[in-house]
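Write out this protein's structure.
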Amino acid sequence: MKQTVLGFILLFAALYNGVGQPQNLVPNPGFEVMDSCPKTFGEVHRLKHWENYHYTPDLFHECAATKYVKIPINFFGQQMPASGKGYAGITVYHQKYPNEVIGVALKEPLQKGVSYEARIKVSLAERYSKYATNNLGFLFTNKPREAYNGKKVHIRTTEVIRETKEWVTIGGVFVPDKNYRYMMIGNFFDHEHTKRQVINSTVKYPAAYYYIDEVYVAKQGKRMSFSSGVAIKPGKICCLDNVLFDFDKASLKPFSQKELLKLAKLLRKEKHLKIQIAGHTDNIGTEKDNLDLSLRRAQAVVDFLVNHEDIKPNRLQAKGRGERQPVATNQTASGRALNRRVEFEVLTK
């Protein structure tokens, strides 16, 4: 299997469905469209398009008939959706039971030899998870019922994902060795090849369970999610994920800071690199207020890099773009969430 596996936590995710952006090949990517609301565990089958490819993955939604699969509080933990009103959940590790896998038939097959980007937002469910693990990722196949335990993967996170309060984006870029029709999400490795860390020793379930939202697979476009492996050249635009702000605020949430350390590391490595930090918003509010908010958020990133990481200020520019450059529709909650983003553009190298 020819593959480029970038095992990393990506910084910023937007599902690029705007004009000129690659089409998301995943139908129902936010787990919003259902035949009916979930009533109990293991009801991914109620979702449009999605399938249970192994064991008993779960569907969580605001309309759930029972508290066990409701949001934001359910049997496994507490989490609001990354966008919209629902998300899925899978067991990525359990001492006694199999790993769970969900999947979907893509809108069109992946093409052999073409570069694709795939990413997903995940959050560890704290009430059910004694452990946090790595290996959560994507497998593309034409035989999903046979592929779940094949110890093959196209993209996975090599880092252990520990976050329970925030959504973390994982993913990468890969080149398929053949045309693939189906996408699968899960941990395709056994216990021996899966890292795990104890998160809460008082939890009685010997498991690692992750919520999943905002799934994206598309041809590699102009904008790329930033990682330590991304190619840096003038004109390159990279999205900063996991750089988070409270609603209508411009103060960086503490969770964002460790993500910005990766950008600081790049700037220290590339000593002549100059970048522009750009903030973007959805269209809720006035255009003037959104332009101001986006600039203040971009400036907060610049201030962090200058004041905490000793990056020279003449290497950084802050730019507010407001609501003017959406990458998704503003007619839905999930689209608006994707438009609220921070990017950087390489000016000189």
